[in-house]
Write a structure and sequence with these properties.
The complex is a heterodimer of chains A (109) and B (230). Chain A is an all-alpha fold and 109 residues long. Chain A is 77% helix and 0% strand. Chain A contains five helices and no strands. Chain A has helices at residues 3-27, 32-37, 41-55, 68-83, 86-107. In chain A, helix 4 runs antiparallel to helix 5. Chain A is extended, with a radius of gyration of 21 Å. Chain B is 77% helix and 0% strand. Chain B is built from eleven helices and no strands. The radius of gyration of chain B is 19 Å and the shape is globular. Classes of the chains: A mainly alpha (109), B mainly alpha (230). Chains A and B meet through helix 1, helix 2, helix 3, helix 4 and helix 5 of A and helix 1, helix 2, helix 3, helix 4 and helix 5 of B.
Amino acid sequence: MNIWIVMVIAGLLTFGTRLSFILLLDRIKVPDWFKRGLRFVPVAVLSAIILPDLTSPNGTLLLSWRNPQLLAGLVAVLVAWRTKNVILTILAGLAALVIIQLLLAHFGF
Amino acid sequence: MIAKTRKLEFWRGVRDEAPILLGVIPFGLLFGALAISAHISIPAAQAMSSIIFAGASQLIAAQLVGAGTSGLVILMVVFVVNLRHALYSASVAPHVRHLGTAWKLLLSYLLTDEAYAVTITHYNREGDSPDRHWYFLGAGLTLWSAWQASTAVGIFIGAQIPANWPLGFVLPLTFIALVVPSLKDRAGVAAALVAGLIGLLATNFPYKTGLLLAALIGIVTGLLIEGRRK
């Protein structure tokens, strides 16, 4: 298959997926539990993205204090909880990551 | 007056989307560079970022093209990788219900992970204002522009970001900043913890199916706990 054809079909599939419920929810009646479930979508999807990024930064699970991403992520959770501020959370998480990586490299645990 | 609140909503969307770009741009660079090394032509590589406009699936597609995978398999993979967007679609649908078809088509096109995360958090926090779709448009277009520009830079200059720069880490950090303050009850916390845990255990599932499964189980958990407390 020509790459342009593959691309256009892939684009239409992706667009169709994104459009699906935005159009459907107008036209069909959905059960009550479906509507109630929608409020859990952001916390569930984003948590399912966040946690593996922290525990498996290089693709393999590393549940240990030697995992800088995991520790820096915990710092970010605390800052997000206390401040509710996106920029502060990003800065604190990045700073924690750099500091923890430096400490691990210099003291070679 | 009406024009003024639209403008205000639009620019708030732009402003709220801006921090996450720090994490998105390295991926755009990486995609541009990867597409060229997979022998995808320059126009096709650039066009992929606006035709498919979904980062993770584009990176995987470029790798598959480079490996000489058949078109049909690539299509199936892209479809599966992007299935999670159906969840986003259902989640934003009540907030865009009042709009005409043209707006729905436009906002659907812009419904990426990053625009969704910022927009839905804003809607849940601030409630639904009449001009809320302009916020979505501002956030979506900001991400779109950064994605096109970083793809172009990746194509022509390559992904010359030092490997030890932790910019990719900005994505999970931004998501943490959006999720943590919105955890307000037991059902929500349970949904987040279960989804995170399953996501962690299913990291090695192919093509983001682990993510999809984790999100669905998290949502069901939230529903069950909420139902029991009533």
